[in-house]
Each structure stands twice: as structure tokens, then as C-alpha cells.
Amino acid sequence: MKQLLLLLAFLVSAGNLGAKETGSLEEYMATQSMKWEQLPMQWNEGAFLGNGRIGMMVYVDSTDNSLTFWLSRPDVTDHRMAPHRKTSMGVMGASVLTDFCRMDIGKMKLFPQARIQSGTMELDIYDAELTGVLHTDAGDIAFRAFTPYGRELNVVEVESRVPCSWKQLPGSPRSPRIIVFPNLKEEMNYVDNPAPQCVAREHEGWSVHPLLAGGDYATYWKETCGKRRSVLYLSTMNEVPASSLSLPKAMAEVEAAVRKGADALREETRDWWHAYYETGTVCIPDKKMENFYHLQLYKLATCSHPQGPVMDTFGTFYKTSQWPGIWWNLNVQLTYMSTHATNRLEQGVNYQNLLDTLFVDIIRSRGAAKVGDSAWALHTYYSYMRYAGLSWQEIQEKFMPKAEAIYAMYLPHLQEKDNVINLLDTESPEYEGFKTYDNSNYNLAALRWLLQTMTELGDRTGHRPAKYDEWKHILEKLHPAPVDENGYMIGSDKPLAKSHRHYSHLLSFYPLRLQDTTRPEVSAVLEKSIDHWLGIDHGNALAGYSYTGAASLYAYQGNGDKAYAQLHHFLNKPIGLAILLPNTMYVESGGKNPVIETPLSAATAVTEFLLQGWGETLRVFPAVPQDWKDCSFRTLRAEGGFVVSASRKGGKTEWVRIHSDAGRPCRIYLPGWKKVCQLQEGKVKVTAEGNGYYRLEIPRGTDVVLAENVRTATDNTYCLPDTGEWNFYGVKEGKGLSRQMDWPLAEE
Questions:
Q1: For residue 227, what pLDDT band results from cuts at 50, 70 and 90?
Q2: How many CB atoms lie within 10 A of CB 735?
């Protein structure tokens, strides 16, 4: 009945996402939620709740008959080489594996006095709320869980006649890397943190984890009980480097929540999430891909908060893994690129803040051979400012100190010979391990982008630093990209000769976009390069992000069919040792190591099918496959501070709406249109440049709506999925994972 009402509502409204009726959006988002037809039995199947500062993964543990909430707080890291700071990140010689690695908080477990036999769950991403029913041999247990967005707190409500009790299991205070590989403890001279201090009372308890370098993190929980309904409030605080403050702060957070009450907390949380989904939505023919995309929007806000830490490989959700921190050779860059075009800039504020405070320390601590990683990280930082529409002066002030620090690290690697400047001894990430190469395409691209951006900023602002001519000289003489008969090589004397998951050698194409793929010869070498990379050894070393990266590379070329094929493969077919899980998390190493950037980069690729803004030009539907005749998107974002909505029908763009946050010059490519009409009052100046290009003068804070026909209707911006084409994710009946995917040495 609910589905019938939903269908009728959408037939009446014609899928009007542009309308302000919250009900229409609410009903649509119901088709995007995650449903478990059978209970998740491990982290890799679980439901996740969070707000970027705190969260939890929810599943049933059959070994002890519990409903398990694996708690997480992403800023709980060690700081053993920086006793007076919260983290050792950026400290020379500090290792992410042991010195500023993520730490386990532990689990809260609900134990019923009955055997759990089966059950179902649903994660409503519009309300950011998990509901479920456990069927036991003594009756049903209903539960509801959510993480209030504006608080450092989790809430679980339980209703049942079956007696239940809560128990806290504190996490191990040891580095996850050492837990996974205990043989490294002696080799790395690793000393364990002290054991946690725990107190358990009836309906209340806490744990305090002291750290070797000083300070502690603490979790406090309290259960309020009614006749058949109980509510658990729990908070984890991390006041490192201060000691003895985390527990009182967690207690205060819980007590404030108890006074507020679960119902009021739920309402304020829903308000935030409902507003969050007002932007950045898409409607595409592949409804599974559409569902996946919207789940990544949910994931972004559960894992990144403007006042929270930068997302590491886990996002918010801790799992014992050999990669317990931030990785810089692709991971964090792809993670935060997803905040740009999806119009989720608020979720990227923490990345900007990190680079503003610690970037120079970080790049120096990582070494000169890895300088290309730092340049790519800076490109993500720079792109954020371009998407936000900052002025060139603002960008220059924030960008130049970081760029000059990277440039200084490149200088010792430059050698001019025979009127060519060579770049010596730098990495091409993960090809043959950590070997270095002369004129690696990865670092040539990174350096060329750095120099071009520094000189462009000087030209645009009129402020040219003393080294401006030096930068121009290097650009003019820098070794060209090494290319052979198969396309782009790894380096001057190193062809791409074996299957390789990383597309580091193609960095100049994506995401740096140094090459103009509207030129046939450039497009041809790009396609040759991608085809060769994917085809070597039948792609036996490719990983998930190889497919999402290939989708973005083909999309940059404008090849929608090949771009879609790669992303479709990622969502539906085997991807080597990597696995895309039923909860949309992505894991490598046989399912044991979560890596969050890959599914988020898939969401980025979807936006690149629909909208691109490079070369100072907006491109609408630039890389949709040929059979995507009808599709649309609402308020995606493009460089220059432009927020764009558009609809495509019958294989042709119907209309485009452009909002300018910054009042910057705007150029748009609309091939196939014979004329351009404006569909609203307050018209802007439109100048035809020929060959489908138009220049617009849109004042700051205003919109323009363009169509080929002045009578075009602009209200149909998304549509209801066909019957059954919804709620693709979550564990479906009989489709649970066949084995437990955890490191066997993981400590509890």
C-alpha cells in the first residue's frame, strides 16, 4: 500500500524535485534507503550511523548472541611523538602505523535473555535513523538508533517484553597495525598503551583509556528505563593531550541528552538531514547506481564534519585494519574530491583546515620522493576554493605558501641538460613498490600543474613573486610526458608493462586536467593510455578505485559509454581482491581492510557524467552513455562557484539552471542548440561565441534558466524508480557474506 501511495504521489507531482514540498523529497528518499532482509552478521554487512565526530557500526554477533554497536570517534588517535598535541601527524619521523594511528573505542552490546533467530533492519538515510526487529525464541525486540548531528553522542532505543541488558567491551589500546601483525611489535620497538580502566553498574558504566604519551579518551553510557522501553545514551570524548577531562565531558554530554530526551534529539537531527538532501541529487536510468550515489551522500555526512577530523581510510567507522590512518598517495585526495561537485563543501571544511595548519609539516615529514602526493593533496585543496568561488586574491593568499613549500622540495630533483629540465628520482605510487624513476609522469604532471597554477595566480592578481620568471623557465623547459606506443609511460625509461591498480601515470589527465581533450590527438592518446592500463594481464592487479578512476578518465575524454561501463563493473562485478560490500563500504585484502575513498570516488564519477567545469567552461551532460536518453540533476557544483541543475530528455538537454555564488565570468557549452532562450525575469547578458559556446554575465547571488524553446517546462528534475527498482543495498535474503572478514589476530 505504501508503494502504491508513493507511486500515485509521484505521478501527480511529475517528480518535481524543484518544488518545496518536503513530502515529495521524503517519499523519493524512501526509495534510496538501505534495507536488510536478513540480519547483518559482521562489520562488513552492518548499518552505519554517525556525524563525522562520532558514530557506530551495527550488526549481530552470533558468537555471543548480541546486538553489537561498534563505537567510533575518528579523532581518537595515538600521539606518542607529540605529548603536548592531539596528534603526532606532521612530526618528523612519526609513523601513521604506530605514532598517530586510529585507536579502538570498543563495543556496546545488547544481550537478550533469549536466542536471536532472525530479523530485519532499515536505515532511513533521509532521517539518518536505523530501525530493526530481532526475532528471538522468546519474542521480538524492536530497536531504533541514531546519532544526533549536533552532538557527540549516540542514542539507542529498545522496546520489548524480552529482558535485555547492556554491556560495554572496551577496545584494545594497541596500534591496529600491531594487532594485525604482532610480530612487528618487537621489530618496531612498540610499547603498549596502558590497559583501559572500566566501571560497570546497573544501567550505567564507563571506560577510560590512558595513553602512554599522556591524556586519555573515555566513553560513558547511561540507560533510562520505562515499562517496556529503554533508551541508551552514550558518548565518547577525546580531550588529549589533557588528562582526566574526557570522562567528565562524556558524562556531561550524556546528562544533557537525557534532559533533552530522545524524541527532541531525533527531531533536531531530522531537521539537519532533511536540509542536507535539498541539494546535489541525481536522476539517472541506472537506478542501482542512483541509489548508490545517494548512499554516498549519506556516508559523507556520517564521516565528515566541519569541526571534526579529516577522514582517514575508515571514515568515522573503526575496524581493526593494517591501514589505521590517513594515506596520501591517492586516498585522502579522492575522498575529499567527492565533496566538490556533489555540492557538499561543508563536509570538506576539515580538510581545508588541516592543510592550513599542518600541511607544510606533513609534506616535510613524508620525504622528497613523495612530493607528488603533496602536490595532488594541494590540488584537492585548491579545487575546493575554485568550486566555492573564492576570489583569485583569496586563493593566492592561501595557496602560495603551501605551493612554494612543495616547489622547494622539487628543486633538488631538477637537472637541466641539453636544454631540457629533467625531474629525477621521484615515485610513481605503488608501481614496483616504492621505487623512484626519472621523469615519472606522476611527478612531472604534479610539478607542471603547480608551476602553471602559481604563474596563473600571478597573472590574474597582478602580484608576481620574484621567482615568477624562474617558474616560467622551468615550465618551458620541463621534460615532456614520456609516451610510447601504448600511451603514457611510468617514466622516461619505464613503460607501463604490468597490471597496476594505480593510475598515477595519468595524473595529468585526471584530476589535474592539464591536457585539452577537445583536441582529437589528445583524446586519442588518453584513450590509448587508459585501454592499455586496464588491459594489461587482463587487469589482474586492478582494485576498486581503478574502475572508478577509469570512469572519471573516460568521462574527462567525453566517452560516456566507456565511462559508464567501468562504473557499472565496479558496482556489479568482481573487482579482484577488493570487495564492494552490501552496505556500500569497500574493503581490500580479502575483506579485512576498509578504504573509504573508493565508493566516494564512484559518486564523484557519477557527477562527472552529468556536469563538468574545466577550461573555464561548464559542460552539461558531457559524458552520459548513449542510452541515457532521460536524466537530470539538481544543484551540483562546478568551478567558479556555479551551482547547476539541468534536465535531459529524449537524448537532448532540455534546460539548464545556473546560480552564481561569486558573480564570476561564466561560459557554457551547449552543443546542438540552435538558440538560447531565458525562462525567467531579470535576464542576463548571453553572448554566442560559436560552435555551441556561450558566455554569460550572471550577477552574484542570481540565477539564469536557459532552454532552446521559451515554452520549456523546468519542473521535472527527478523521477520515481519503477516498481522494485529501489533499496538495492543492505543484506538481501540469502545474500549474506559467506565468511567472516576480519583479521584473525584482532584483539577485543
A1: confident
A2: 12
